[in-house]
Design goal:
Strand order of the largest sheet: 1-9-8-5-2-3
Helix content: 25-40%
Oligomer: single chain
CATH topology: Rossmann fold
Order of helices and strands: EHEHHEEHHEEEHEHE
Number of helices: 7
CATH architecture: 3-Layer(aba) Sandwich
Largest sheet: 6 strands, parallel
Shape: globular
Bound molecules: 6-phosphogluconic acid
């Protein structure tokens, strides 16, 4: 893997603007399907809103964009804790993306069944049961990081960290609020990306960010090793301990 790139913005608004523009540029540079995995949490909300507003809304090639999620909380779609709901309200409801291109993580079944259903959907989209490093699953995989160093729903010390033969796995007991079961992409699926972009803002992430950038493997975010590029889009407050 190449050295990660660190891109520092002045504040969360500047960070969202920069990443939104970067996503649109990457999408326009390619042809054919553009697979974007969205992260949950609150940090990307502003980014999603910018993608759904002019001038970027018109520039994004929505008909060939496919949306996935890196993780989901097992709650109804209309719950305030739903990652799908956040992205839908901030972006999906306002853009001309074909509904069949929105690959939400299923929530109706049990967490284990939801993970299996999602893995099946990912494999159907990819067209193979095996990930080929020369043909990444995602064009961009957006990730966040919690203050404990978790990413997606890969929490420190949990069994999901070791799922090497699965693309999506259930997380019955997440280590942080909201304490609901979740479904998360495994490392092999997270890493199958032309670019992984972490979005990290705020001083409460500063101590973990320093440890992750130091390569401390106990923090799940430090173990993300994409087949493509790794970019840390951060704001100054998040970098204050580095
Ligand atoms: C989730 C996430 C999670 C999130 C981080 C950062 O569903 O909770 O996908 O990994 O990205 O916890 O969240 P914030 O942006 O809210 O700090």
């Amino acid at each position: 893997m190449a050295e990660p790139r660190i891109d520092i913005s002045a504040d969360p608004d500047a960070l969202a603007g920069k990443v939104a523009q970067w996503i649109v540029d990457r999408a326009r540079a390619g042809q054919g399907r553009f697979a974007l995995a969205l992260s949950g949490g609150s940090t990307p909300r502003r980014l999603y809103q910018l993608l759904a507003a002019e001038p970027l809304r018109e520039r994004m090639p929505w008909p060939r964009v496919h949306l996935f999620w890196s993780d989901e909380r097992c709650v109804p779609r209309d719950s305030a804790d739903s990652n799908y709901r956040m992205a839908h309200e901030a972006m999906i409801a306002h853009v001309p993306i074909p509904p069949e291109n929105v690959h939400a993580i299923p929530v109706a079944a049990s967490p284990a069944a939801a993970a299996q259903d999602y893995e099946r959907a990912l494999k159907a989209y990819y067209g193979s049961e095996a990930l080929d490093p020369a043909r990444p699953l995602f064009d961009i995989n957006l990730l966040g990081m919690g203050p404990d160093g978790h990413t997606a729903s890969l929490f420190p010390g949990k069994p999901a960290l070791d799922a090497r033969d699965r693309w999506a796995v259930e997380v019955p007991e997440p280590g942080l609020n909201p304490f609901v079961p979740r479904v998360t992409l495994s490392y092999p699926a997270l890493d199958s990306a032309r670019a992984v972009a972490f979005l990290v803002a705020g001083a409460d992430k500063a101590a973990s960010l320093r440890r992750v950038l130091d390569g401390e493997q106990a923090l799940p975010a430090a173990r993300v090793a994409p087949v493509g590029e790794l970019i840390w889009f951060v704001d100054r407050a998040a970098m204050s301990a580095v």
